[in-house]
Amino acid sequence: MTTQEAPFRRVLIANRGEIAVRIIRACREMGMEAVAVYSDADAEAAHVRLADRAVRIGPAAPSESYLRIDAVIEAARATGSEAIHPGYGFLAERAAFARAAEEAGIVFVGPSSDAIEQLGDKLHARRLAARVGVPSVPGTLEPAPVDHPDRVAELIATAREVGFPLLVKAAAGGGGRGMRRVVREEDLAAALVAGSRESLSAFGDGSVYLEREILPARHIEVQLLADHHGRVVALGERDCSLQRRHQKLVEEAPAPGLTEEQRRHLHLLAVTMGAAAGLRNAATCEFLHDPEGNFWFLEVNTRLQVEHGVTEMVSGIDIVREQFRIAAGLGLSDEVLAAGERAALPASHAIEVRISAEDPARAFAPTPGRVGRWVMPGGPGIRIDTHIEPGDRIPPDYDNLIAKLMVHAHDRDAAIDRLRRALDETEIGGVQTTLPFHRLVASSTAFREGRLSTGWVEEYWDGDAARAAAVRRALAAAGLASVLAEAAPAGMRASEALPWDGGSRPAGHNGWRNGGRAQGVDRWPS
Predict the structure, then answer these.
(1) In which band, very low, low, confident or very high, does the pLDDT at 3 lie, cut at 50, 70 and 90?
(2) Is the dihedral of CA 206, 209, 215, 218 positive or negative?
């Protein structure tokens, strides 16, 4: 697309990190100028360097920078930006932000403020689903009367109808905030109060409701695109079952094990919800899939998803590019319509792992710091979305995601094989990352066989055992190096005494035992 055909002349990206870099690249390809915003912690960040212009919006704390609607809108006005792309997180699903852009005469690249407001309220979305015949997870459709002690008996009766164990969930948010698991009736009142308080603190709304806990279950979401003419298309589905604390770790497209008939049914449910909500632009309709094969509606995310890349790889559609076209008032492209027609019969498979600065041996606790060695994989079917370079500092103020490693192949087995190879090539030093967890996933028989559920991490990952095993391997490698060094000719370094297979790394055990990772690249052995 040439500059003359660009949907907008200048776009402000109201975000940071890898998603800001991703959107800036789309702007460049479409002939649009990109404006970055940044906090003091991100003054030298990749998205700032890549943008055509950059505007400081405040200190490191998100509440004083990336979450300041007034500062972002003023930056857009000052730079003459015609549109704002919110990315994901921060202000992406804030109806007030979309409305502020609309009132300022700036195009918001996403659903309308009304749609965000309505679908952002999970109870409203559940009522909408009930009206159009889309089955929701069994639960309540109205807020629980938390502030009415006289209605405790009524609440317990309702909870019995929903069924235990159940979840107390926030009506206004997600990501596990405000969520409480309740197994016994006597714990319900305390869970409602605690969930409501957390929801009020996190989202400014203390409304909570009850929802049955479906176990085991898979988390499957459908990628939607919709235009101003009322057309809604499902580009395909993704399995996002591997999670910790309700945050996704691994995503893949298509969802393994579904038949063509199941896919068509699932896509129809999602399109029905999108059409009923008057959706436009990109959104994701999320479901739980139970062992009996039922799909239960959860919620609609009115934004671009972190894992959109795997759908792009399988469908051949640049979702960010389409977002800009739709925001400019253009209809869904012929390519999108064709992709929707073939979505139930996917011809390839893609998997994404989220590499984060977290310690998977300590319940995925954040590990901010400065990145040392940074080697990303290459070769056929590999895509890396990142904002990190060697020497970059990962600040403690923001999300811990540092790279998304995606692989694409002709089928799922080949994609897993490619993922294992790509992870073996990946080296990150200076900070502890989730790489050890991802390597376990890629080598797991349960994962390869498609035995997936939202409880997979708890069932198959033992961080303490994994760390202990890594230390034992490192010590064994160090001992081998010491023995070989003693036997090496005078003047030869210990590393030169290791056996070689003629390649670029020492032989044996996939490179990590005797190669760079044995020296503590994964951090644990050090």
Answers:
(1) very low
(2) negative
Per-residue DSSP letter, 520: T
Q: What is the mean pLDDT of residues 410-424?
A: 98
Greatest C-alpha distance within the chain = 86
Write the burial class of residue 472 (CB in 10 Å: 0-12 exposed, 13-18 middle, 19+ buried): exposed
- Distance between CA atoms of 171 and 510, rounded to whole angstroms? 47
Q: How many Å apart are CA 155 and CA 164, to the nearest integer?
A: 13
Measured CA to CA, the distance from residue 403 to residue 161 in angstroms comes to 44
| Phi, psi dihedral angles at 144 (to 5 degrees) | -70, 135
Cα separation, 317 vs 139, whole angstroms: 36
Decide: 46 and 388 in contact? Cβ < 8 Å.
Answer: yes
Q: Please state, as a whole number, how many other Cβ atoms lie within 10 Å of the Cβ of residue 13.
A: 28
Give residue-wise pLDDT tens across range 146-167: 888 888 888 899 999 999 999 9
% of the chain surpassing 70 pLDDT = 91
**How far, CA to CA in Å, does 458 sit from each of 63, 77, 136?**
33, 48, 26
Q: What is the pLDDT of residues 482-493, one digit of tens each?
A: 666 666 666 555
Determine how β-strand 33-39 pairs with β-strand 53-58: parallel
The DSSP annotation for 102-121 comes to HHTT-EESSS-HHHHHHHHS
Q: Can 303 be counted among the known catalytic residues?
A: yes
The residue from 263, 303, 418, 523 that is catalytic is: 303
